[in-house]
């Protein structure tokens, strides 16, 4: 499982990374989809998430891979 890579960010990831609520996480995902003009049914990629928030990609990737390894 530790070698598995992910391409998308889920609400649970946002909740854990930011320490914020589920409703906040879903609001962020909606805002990103509007910003990138994506349909509601599409997923948000890691690149879109970090681009929208200006967070260094390496920080998010380290978090995601740490979570996957657990």
What is the residue-mean pLDDT, rounded to a whole number?
Answer: 89
Order of helices and strands: EHHEHH
**Count of helix runs:** 4
What value does the Rg take, in angstroms?
Answer: 12 Å
How does the helix and strand content classify structurally? mainly alpha
| Sheet with the most strands, sense and barrel status | 2 strands, antiparallel
What share of the residues does DSSP label as strand, in percent?
5-15%
Number of β-strand runs: 2
Overall, the morphology is globular
User: Uncertain regions: pLDDT < 50 for 5+ in a row?
Assistant: none
Question: How would you describe this structure to a colleague?
Answer:
- The protein has 70 residues and is mainly alpha-helical.
- Helices cover 61% and strands 6% of the residues.
- It contains four helices and two strands, in the order βααβαα.
- The radius of gyration is 12 Å and the shape is globular.
Would you kindly provide a brief summary of this structure?
The chain has 70 residues and is mainly α. The chain is built from 4 helices and 2 strands, in the order βααβαα.
Please give a handful of descriptors for the protein shown.
single chain, 70 residues, mainly alpha, two-stranded antiparallel ribbon, 2 strands
Which helices and strands occur, and which strands form pairs?
Blueprint: E1 8-9, H1 11-18, H2 22-35, E2 44-45, H3 46-53, H4 57-69
Antiparallel strand pairs: 1-2
Helix pairs in contact: 1-2
